Amino acid sequence: MVDDALKSHRIVGMIQPDPEAGTGTDVPALFSVGCAGRITQFAEIRRRTLPYHADGDCAFKIVEELAGTTPYRQCRADFSPFFVDFSPRAGEDQVDRDGVLRTLRDFADTNHLQVDWNSIHNAPNEALVNALSMMSPCSPKEKQALLEARDLKGRADVLVAITEIELARGKTNRHPALNP
Predict the structure, then answer these.
(1) Low-confidence ranges of the chain (pLDDT < 70)
(2) What is the four-CA torsion angle of 18, 25, 58, 53, rounded to 10 degrees?
(3) Predicted pLDDT at 101
(4) Nearest-CA neighbor of 136 among 108, 170, 94, 96?
(5) Distance from C-alpha of 60 to C-alpha of 140, rounded to nearest angstrom
(6) How far apart are CA 75 and CA 33, in angstroms?
(7) Burial of 21 (0-12, 13-18, 19+ CB in 10 A)
(8) What predicted TM-score, i.e. pTM, was given to this entire model?
(9) What are 63-69's contacts with CB under 8 Å, separation 24+?
(10) Residue 173's closest CA among 117, 108, 120?
């Protein structure tokens, strides 16, 4: 897939399998929303090309899955519901930054995590919310909810809600990365 992308537009998309949607076949069902990015850096290791950096992530909705002979699945995608992803820092002013930081502090304190608060406070809202969304120890379904948020404010609100629910349940140490 990476080799094919590098020969053309350098864009690859990723979609999580949906474990709750049975297909009755060996081919797993997919969630309807995925994320695409342009491969900007790659490395060739043992005759395999591996991307190690992709820029310009944008969510997309599957319009239809295409029949093909490649070892990877392909689809026709609709990016229009997520065009705001192409506008850098769009919606930063609508994010409840104090709420995000308060929830992050509660999560870090509860899990005895060391946080570089200076870097956190200097990060723009877009970088902060997107980095926390990627790094958070959420379930696949929760990660999907973060991906499907229509804008940065929505993503921040979902992130805060998921974290507050986990803190209330007392299940914050469920991720291996949080258990040294």
Answers:
(1) 23, 47, 49-56, 171-180
(2) 100
(3) 96
(4) 108
(5) 17
(6) 11
(7) exposed
(8) 0.77
(9) 65/30
(10) 108
Length of the chain, please?
180
- Beta bridge partners of residue 78, listed in sequence order: 61
- C-alpha triplet 161, 167, 171: angle, nearest 5°: 115
Three-state secondary structure call for residue 66: strand
DSSP 113-174: ----HHHHHHS-HHHHHHHHHHHS---HHHHHHHHH-SSHHHHHHHHHHHHHHHHHHT-TT-
pLDDT tens, position by position, 48-88 = 766 555 566 788 999 999 998 999 999 999 999 888 777 77
**pLDDT computed for residue 25 by the predictor:** 77
Task: Give the pLDDT of residue 63.
Answer: 96
3-state secondary structure of 99: helix
Q: What is the pLDDT of residue 176?
A: 46
Pairing type for strands 11-14 and 48-66 reads unpaired
CB 78 within 8 A of CB 60: yes
Tell me what pLDDT residue 136 has.
87
